[in-house]
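Example S7 (structure tokens).
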């Protein structure tokens, strides 16, 4: 179908546009036998209205165009009868996805924006046409209460569902009861592409009887006090989990959060992944906000199998060498450590608050196998690079360094770039910007911080080339851990 025709269809009224007559004519002349030959072979379909097609943005598919396709298609309402995986992203009506839904579809990922009426129609259709879904990912900015009835009906239909990814605050009581009864569900996670809408009715306080019989990954909203009560009353449920993600509003003192994490460490040593998102409610009092207690980390030391720890908190978390040595001994398999922070502009966060960039050397020493590292760096803790591009300790797999909204320490861009290069085998991606839970106003300095880190990324490429040149001249040995290290001075 010609892309210019699709554009014209999207811009004009279906009752007056000549483009619709053109479409009807084209469809009537289509080689449907050839279409059917290929349609039976298609197993995977992906459509994204933001992607470019032949150098241009993909136009949205008007619902009436799909209806006309129905009229001309010779063999019923299913266009791709053996389709198993379907991904569909649009800022228009989701109605266009319906002809591709069938009982064969097992994996469905859909993004729908600002179409609450249409998304209800989509859920009704999906429940009827694709009752055998095993995996659903829903990305949307539509509030849960606007689609609760239709979503609930669909969930009750999908008894084979194993993986469910939905927006945060979608587990209102009726939906929670239906989701918790799914007999094969192993993973319940949140989708974060769009900003969340806080809904007190979806703050988890208790679980239905015999909830989640096979669940291994659990992502939920709750306040720390309710989460603490939940883990105390549902010990057997939490003892079955491998991945846990709590999204909780900040509470002054954080004592309930500390106690919740203590119960995690004692009762859930099998945990592999722990994520804690602590965010600020509107109207919070800045004087009540205090840093994350260090005891939170110690409480998780019994979780020896931990490979991922991610904590987001309103104030920065700082470390010293002793902290990291103890953490490395407790979590030998850790490959992701992300401690993100976006200080709210109303909070008192002096330039000295945060980590020095030089702390990366200690992380490379104690956690050489890290793949993702996220820290907040202090603006006034000046970093200096002393010229050693091949130090004794390096990251061997670091792919991503998350700096959030940190300033470049001391504005020393060259030193920062060469220090990072010296500690890495390959250049990591530098992830910049606020996290998905940040709800405050952007700081006026953040654009300048972003520009500086983007410049560091450019300098990092040059620094890595220099390191490659130096490395080729330095003799290498393999240490007892199997890591490649310099055998002499560079």
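Recovered sequence:
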């Amino acid at each position: 179908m010609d892309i210019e025709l699709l554009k014209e269809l999207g811009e004009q009224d279906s009752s007056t546009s000549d483009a619709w007559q053109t479409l009807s004519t084209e469809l009537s002349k289509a080689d449907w036998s050839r279409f059917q030959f290929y349609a039976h072979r298609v197993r995977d379909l992906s459509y994204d209205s933001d992607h470019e097609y032949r150098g241009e943005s993909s136009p949205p598919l008007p619902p009436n165009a799909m209806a006309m396709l129905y009229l001309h298609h010779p063999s019923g309402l299913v266009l791709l009868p053996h389709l198993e995986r379907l991904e569909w992203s649009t800022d228009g009506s989701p109605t266009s996805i319906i002809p591709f839904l069938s009982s064969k579809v097992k994996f469905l990922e859909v993004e729908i924006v600002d179409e609450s009426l249409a998304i209800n129609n989509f859920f009704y259709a999906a429940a009827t046409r694709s009752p055998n879904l095993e995996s659903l990912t829903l990305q949307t900015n539509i509030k849960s209460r606007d689609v609760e009835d239709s979503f609930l009906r669909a969930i009750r239909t999908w008894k084979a569902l194993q993986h469910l990814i939905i927006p945060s605050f979608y587990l209102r009581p009726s939906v929670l009861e239906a989701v918790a009864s799914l007999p094969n569900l192993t993973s319940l996670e949140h989708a974060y592409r769009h900003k969340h809408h806080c809904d007190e009715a979806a703050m988890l306080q208790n679980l239905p009887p015999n909830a989640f019989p096979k669940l291994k990954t659990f992502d939920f909203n709750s306040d720390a006090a309710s989460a603490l009560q939940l883990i105390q009353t549902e010990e057997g449920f939490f003892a079955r989990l491998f991945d846990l993600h709590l999204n909780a509003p900040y509470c002054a003192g954080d004592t309930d959060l500390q106690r919740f994490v203590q119960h995690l460490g004692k009762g859930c040593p099998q945990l592999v992944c722990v994520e804690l998102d602590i965010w600020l409610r509107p109207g919070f009092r800045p004087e009540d906000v205090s840093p994350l207690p260090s005891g939170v980390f110690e409480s998780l030391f019994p979780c020896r199998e931990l490979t991922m720890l991610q904590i987001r908190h309103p104030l920065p978390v700082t470390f010293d060498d002793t902290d990291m040595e103890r953490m490395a001994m407790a979590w030998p398999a850790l490959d992701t450590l992300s401690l993100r922070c976006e200080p709210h502009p109303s909070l008192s966060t002096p330039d000295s608050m945060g980590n020095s960039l030089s702390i990366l050397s200690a992380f490379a020493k104690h956690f050489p196998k890290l793949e993702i590292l996220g820290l907040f760096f202090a603006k006034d803790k000046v970093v200096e690079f002393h010229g050693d591009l091949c130090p004794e300790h390096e990251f061997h797999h670091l792919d991503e360094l998350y700096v959030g909204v940190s300033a470049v320490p001391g504005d020393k861009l060259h030193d920062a770039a060469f220090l990072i290069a010296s500690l890495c085998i390959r250049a990591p991606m530098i992830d910049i910007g606020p996290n998905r839970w940040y709800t405050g106003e952007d700081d006026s300095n953040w654009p300048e911080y972003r520009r500086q880190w983007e410049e560091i990324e450019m300098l990092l490429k040059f620094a890595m080339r220099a390191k490659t040149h130096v490395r080729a001249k330095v003799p290498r040995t393999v240490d007892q851990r199997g890591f490649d290290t310099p055998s002499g001075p560079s």
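Notes on this example. The CA atoms of residues 137 and 404 lie 26 Å apart.
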